[in-house]
């Protein structure tokens, strides 16, 4: 098979690119990264330093005309989790007006306007997408599936926790693959037993083997247009109908609960640590230690709001320091900086307790060492990048499984 050309949206510091280009069957030909809340575009600077500035766009994707984006075989991106409700439809058009700044509609717009539509999509988001918003659980994901179905795509999704498959970080994310109706995979899915596809034959169970938890599969249709779906889907506010694995083809959803099936090697925090080379600045002083112990500890206390309202506050304790023989907790964007925090990782070493280094955070996401190191970029900013990033190994495995499926069907 020929190399697949890729367009990478919401590129961050290039996690999708690293994972896909590892297989050598993918080539990123255009990328876009824009951070709306900062004047200096730090992530874009790192991306350009690692991959070159050619064909990289550092402009708000909402302002990039589709005509400026080259045709590509595959569109990828980890788009922000927002409110995806549909305000109205455009007259005499299949287009949509979602809220400005809701970047899902930029993906939708590119797919709508491209005459030569990408054959494949690989998108990633937090797993709560399947349950959002709280007053209409599952509506946001239903809108995505319906809009992709309207554009000629079948979708296969799965919630994957990287640590369940031996990777060094517990990071749960929903990954969904789209297959355009012009592809052999779409045709194969259309003629397959859905349950077999979800636990054996699909791309995601090939990459990440799974067993079913629930014996029965849930089937339902996405009825009406996008506006009525936005207004009426799960209006009673019950549980989301979307389980952690599923497919959608021709507006019909099939979903089932699965569990990871893996007995290979497992990486833990001890495997990613710098031994003896970590910056002395990372160590926690004796004066600061009580603050860390308080924040990490169990609490039952009376607190007061700014307006003077008193309330009882309680929370359980966290493991402190973090267990070296386990995968890490999920890295968050506030992982960097010296200030004590309940959520930052702390490890015990021969020299004492310390925070994780930028290199260690990169290793937890399976990035190359010092991938984010660049003059003018602080360690706190490097930690922020990793809090926003994905686990490269997950993308690597999905890309590899997709290539194998395409080759098999082309034979």
Radius of gyration: 22 Å
Name the CATH homologous superfamily of the largest domain.
Vaccinia Virus protein VP39
β content, as a range? 15-25%
Major beta-sheet overview: 10 strands, mixed
Question: Into how many domains do the coordinates divide?
Answer: 2
Oligomer: single chain
| CATH architectural grouping of the largest domain | 3-Layer(aba) Sandwich
> How widely separated are the two ends?
10 Å
Q: So what's the CATH class of the largest domain?
A: Alpha Beta
- What coarse outline follows from CA principal-axis ratios? globular
Poorly predicted runs of 5 or more residues: 87-97
Strand order of the largest sheet: 3-2-1-4-7-9-8-12-13-11
Given helix and strand content, the structural type is: alpha+beta
Number of helical runs?
A: 13
Could you please say which CATH topology of the largest domain applies here? Answer: Rossmann fold
Mean pLDDT: 92
Using DSSP, what is the number of strands? 18
Provide the helix percentage. Answer: 25-40%
Protein name: Cytosine-specific methyltransferase
EC number: 2.1.1.37
InterPro entries: C5-MTase, C5_DNA_meth_AS, C5_MeTfrase, SAM-dependent_MTases_sf
Family: Belongs to the class I-like SAM-binding methyltransferase superfamily. C5-methyltransferase family.
Describe what this molecule looks like in 3D:
- It comes from Flagellimonas maritima.
- Belongs to the class I-like SAM-binding methyltransferase superfamily. C5-methyltransferase family.
- This is Cytosine-specific methyltransferase.
- Its EC number is 2.1.1.37.
- This protein is an alpha+beta fold.
- The protein has two domains: 279 residues, Vaccinia Virus protein VP39 (Rossmann fold, 3-Layer(aba) Sandwich), CATH 3.40.50.150; 112 residues.
- It contains 13 helices and 18 strands.
- β15 and β16 form a beta hairpin.
- α1 crosses α13.
- The longest helix has 19 residues.
- The protein is globular and about 65 Å long.
- The termini are close together.
- About 3% of the residues have low confidence.
């Amino acid at each position: 098979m020929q190399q697949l050309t890729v367009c990478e949206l919401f590129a961050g510091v290039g996690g999708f690119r690293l994972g896909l280009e590892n297989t050598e069957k993918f080539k990123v030909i255009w990328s876009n990264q824009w951070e709306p809340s900062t004047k200096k575009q730090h992530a874009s600077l790192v991306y350009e330093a690692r991959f070159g500035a050619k064909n990289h766009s550092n402009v708000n994707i909402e302002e990039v005309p589709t005509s400026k984006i080259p045709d590509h075989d595959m569109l990828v991106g980890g788009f922000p989790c927002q409110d995806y409700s549909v305000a109205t439809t455009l007259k005499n058009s299949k287009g949509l007006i979602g809220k400005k700044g809701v970047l899902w509609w930029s993906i939708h717009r590119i797919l709508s306007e491209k005459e030569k539509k990408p054959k494949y999509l690989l998108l990633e988001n937090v797993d709560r997408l399947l349950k959002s918003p709280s007053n209409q659980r599952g509506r946001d994901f239903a809108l995505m599936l319906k809009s992709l179905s309207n554009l000629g795509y079948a979708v296969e999704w799965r919630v994957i926790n990287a640590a369940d498959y031996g990777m060094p970080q517990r990071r749960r994310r929903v990954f969904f693959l789209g297959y355009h109706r012009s592809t052999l995979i779409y045709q194969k899915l259309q003629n397959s037993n859905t349950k077999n596809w979800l636990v054996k034959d699909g791309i995601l169970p090939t990459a990440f083997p799974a067993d079913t938890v629930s014996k029965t599969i849930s089937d339902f249709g996405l009825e009406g247009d996008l506006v009525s779906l936005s207004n009426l889907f799960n209006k009673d506010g019950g549980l989301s109908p979307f389980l952690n694995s599923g497919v959608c083809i021709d507006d019909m959803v099939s979903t089932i609960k699965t569990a990871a099936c893996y007995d290979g090697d497992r990486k833990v925090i001890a495997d990613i640590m710098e031994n003896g080379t970590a910056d002395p600045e990372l160590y926690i002083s004796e004066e600061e230690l009580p603050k860390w112990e308080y924040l990490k500890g169990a609490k039952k206390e009376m607190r007061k709001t700014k307006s003077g309202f008193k309330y009882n506050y309680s929370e359980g304790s966290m493991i402190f320091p973090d267990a070296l023989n386990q995968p890490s907790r999920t890295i968050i964007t506030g992982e960097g900086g010296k200030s004590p925090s309940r959520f930052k990782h702390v490890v015990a070493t021969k020299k004492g307790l310390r925070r994780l280094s930028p290199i260690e955070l990169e290793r937890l996401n399976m990035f190359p060492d010092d991938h984010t190191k660049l003059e003018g970029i602080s360690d706190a900013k490097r930690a922020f990048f990793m809090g926003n990033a994905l686990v490269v190994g997950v993308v690597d495995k999905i890309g590899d499984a997709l290539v194998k499926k395409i080759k098999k069907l082309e034979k």
